[in-house]
Amino acid sequence: MMASYASFGNSKVDKFPQILWEQKSSSAYKNLCLVSAVFAFSVGLTIGILIPLMYFNNGYTVSTNNSSSSEDKVLPNASSIIRTIFLNNSYGYMNVSKVVYPTVSFVESSKPSAKENNDFIENGIYWGKQIENALPEGYRDQKHTIWSDYVNKAVAIRMENGCGRMQNRLVTFQDGLQGCVRYRQNTDQIQGELFSFYLAQILKLPNLAPSAVSIVDLDSPLWSNLHNEIASAQWNSNRPIVLTQFISNLNSANIPAVFKPLERHLNKYDVMNMTKSLLMDKNDVLKNLVELAQWSDLIIFDYLTANLDRIVNNLYNYQWNVNIMDAPAHNLAKKADSELLLFLDNESGLLHGYRLLKKYEIYHSILLDNLCVFRKQTANVIKKLKTKGNIGKLLRDMFEKRNSATVKDILPTLPDKSVKILNERIEKVYNQISRCESIFSNT
């Protein structure tokens, strides 16, 4: 009995430390699990908060850095979308030292021959002699002067709906010629149309139809036969209008493939690929390059004027309608008999477009920043304007010399603020030309 008890007692004493250790281990294990769970929860919560904050902070940097006005904050996501869609293929966002273009297929990675350079591209960034010689004549100084003199003596006999918006009218003169009248309640749209026309002449662009300013005066020979038509159109007397020569036989003009989202750049390598394409004969190649040469002028012109009613319209609406880049370009037409591109309806230029630069500048810059082939004549004018800084004087002198005292009393000249912005944009175009020279020039 004693032995049995002793045996039981020794066994109990031997197991007590083990039981105590097991209880302590279990408690420590539970504490460790609790600490691990709290730590994991804290880390997960922190990461879950920081990642969205970092994402949205980057997405709205542009918006928060601008002023608090509603116009400055319009569509913060739209800018991000447009940059993604339209800038990813830009040479400006790649390593230019390697000159790699994922959307351009270099033919045998060879440089163009001297003959190819002279024919299609000169010095790496200018349209060559063959392209320049094939460009349509268009409308130059003499034709503008003839039209201006004609309007001063013309007599209108009929006025009817036509030429675009509701208060525009198609006017027929007594000799059968016709003109388009642009009437606007806002004077700055008339200024924009007129001074954009003057700027095109300074740039030596032949793509704008001859235009002149007149005043709605029922006692003048021009309007004396149209009292009823003017009343029906709800025009007010003593309002400035722009009278543009009517151009017939026009077709719509589409945006070239190189300026659509899958391409979106034009440089000498793109031209090389077009000239070596097996899908087009030589006549089609030349025709396409002549059109692109006019587009290079259009891109510069629309950037300088900040025109909202042409390509910017397509770019802006692309975020909602991906097919819009396949539609005809707004306010752009092509003469069926000469392949001349006509830059129509420039009323948003230089004033209204400048007021909306904060909202639309990204769209204005897209094509300019990816253009590296220019007409040499246009580039030379830009360089001269940049050096002299006299664009304001040139435009105002044209306005003073070409218009009567009556017109100048009613229609203001170009404001100083617009001249300042125009000079800044001339410098931007100049810098783009210089940049392209540094990258693509053969010398």
Automatic annotation (TrEMBL):
GO terms for biological process: cell-cell signaling. Keywords: Membrane, Transmembrane, Transmembrane helix. GO terms for cellular component: extracellular space. The chain crosses the membrane at residues 32-56. This is Uncharacterized protein. It comes from Ceutorhynchus assimilis.
